[in-house]
Every structure is written in C-alpha cells, then in structure tokens.
Amino acid sequence: MLFAIIAKDHPDSIELRANTRPNHLEYLGSNDVRYAGPILSDDGEQPIGSIVIIVAENLSAARNFAAGDPYTIAGLFAEVTVHPFKQVISE
Predict the structure, then answer these.
(1) CA 65 to chain centre
(2) What is residue 67's DSSP assignment?
(3) Regarding beta strands 2-9 and 77-84, do their DSSP bridges make them parallel or antiparallel, or are they unpaired?
(4) What's the rounded mean pLDDT across residues 52-63?
(5) Are 45 and 25 in contact (CB under 8 A)?
(6) What distance in Å separates the CA atoms of residue 38 and residue 81, rounded to the nearest whole number?
(7) Under 8 Å between Cβ of 55 and 45
(8) Measured between alpha carbons, how far is 67 from 63 in angstroms, rounded to an integer?
(9) What is the three-class DSSP state of 59?
C-alpha cells in the first residue's frame, strides 16, 4: 500500500538539512520509495520540508519508516504526518 509522508522543516534549518542530506538519501534508496523530494518556499528557492511516497505494509510500518529517516532523527522536522495514499494519475 502507498503512504504519503509530509514533513515540514523547522525554520532556519538549511544547514542541518544540507549536513544530513547524504544519510537521508541513502536511507530513502534502501527502501521502497516511489517518489521523494523537497517542498520549496513560495519563491521556489529554499527547501522547507519533504514529501515521500513509499510502499509499506501498513500505517504503522510507514510511521516507523518516517521515524527512522535521518532527517527526523537529526531534528530537522517541526511536523511529520503520514497518510495512506491512493495514486490516481501517473506520469
């Protein structure tokens, strides 16, 4: 089943995001991630959060995945939500 992880960064956390990014990308690459990328500021210049679409067995597994993300562990996110996701349109 697909799940959407939507996370919003703490303000002024660009340096923490940059320093943690390699571990975050390695973590995403070792799991069944369908799509992932940063949410950007209104001017399209600064990352202010992340969206990750993953395949997981259930909501609990998806939440555990989100909790294990190096960005989460490093304290980058002010808020993280996890929801079941239904893809209706694809590329």
Answers:
(1) 10
(2) H
(3) antiparallel
(4) 98
(5) no
(6) 15
(7) no
(8) 6
(9) helix
pLDDT(53) > 80: yes
- 61's tokens: 């597994």
- The pLDDT of 48-73, averaged and rounded, is 98
Structure token digits, residue 86: 């239904």
Q: How far apart (Å, rounded) are the C-alpha atoms in residues 36 and 73?
A: 18
Distance of CA 34 to CAs 14, 52, 56, 81, Å?
A: 25, 8, 11, 17
Cα torsion angle, 34, 25, 7, 46, sign:
negative
Of 68, 73, 63, the C-alpha closest to 16 is: 73
- The bridge status of strand 2-9 relative to strand 47-55 is antiparallel
Q: What is the rounded CA–CA span in Å between residue 73 and residue 24?
A: 10
Tracing tokens 């209706």 back to the chain, one arrives at 88
CA pair distance 43, 41, nearest whole angstrom: 5
pLDDT at 91 over 90: no
Q: Which residue has the tokens 């940059």?
A: 18
